[in-house]
Amino acid sequence: MSQFRLDKEEETKAPEPPPFTAISQALYKSRTVLIFGEVDMKMAERVTAHLLALSADDPNKDIKIVIHSPGGHVESGDTIHDMIKSLRPKVKTIATGWVASAGTHIYLAADRAHRFALPNTRFMIHQPLGGIRGTASDIEIEAEEIMKAQDRINRTIADETGQPLSKVKEDTDRNFWMSSEEAKAYGLVGRIIERVDMA
Predict the structure, then answer these.
(1) Where are the extended beta strands (E) located within the chain?
(2) Which of 44, 95, 158, 165 is placed for a possible disulfide with 99 were both Cys, Cβ 3.0 to 4.6 Å?
(3) Does the annotation mark 126 as catalytic?
(4) What is the pLDDT confidence band of residue 186, given thresholds at 50, 70 and 90?
(5) 114 catalytic per annotation
């Protein structure tokens, strides 16, 4: 047998789960969830699992989510956004680095009073992007779905910031960048903090 080929038992064996490290234990104890990097289905599954576990552990204690994300998959962002909204514990979102696109959608799931940002955070909102392929009919269907997603996300931004929907539509027609101070004036950020423990 070639040394590069796994035997039958090894081929079918599920991968070992990652160890519950000291860092992850500390994060769990402090009821803190990290959303760092691109938003995709794996991230949505991991974050959902953490949120449900923390909610079950104590439904009366706050949960903090620290976000540093360029965005990603729209529906995965929807999953995390809706999960945050559905939880009994109060969820606080803390932005750092940059929070863009689907990352901003997740950030907005917390009430404005519970949305925090560190001073040098950058925010970006824009219309959903889609790589459309296929027949003319497929392209038409996908384009319609992108427009529906854009309208839904624009309405969420308007509802959560207090901005008129017409302004949000204009702003998201392109990449619209904001500093922490600008995002606070826009209504995205509730409060700018110097330390995470101030949230």
Answers:
(1) 32-36, 63-69, 91-100, 115-117, 122-125, 176-179, 191-192
(2) 95
(3) yes
(4) very high
(5) no
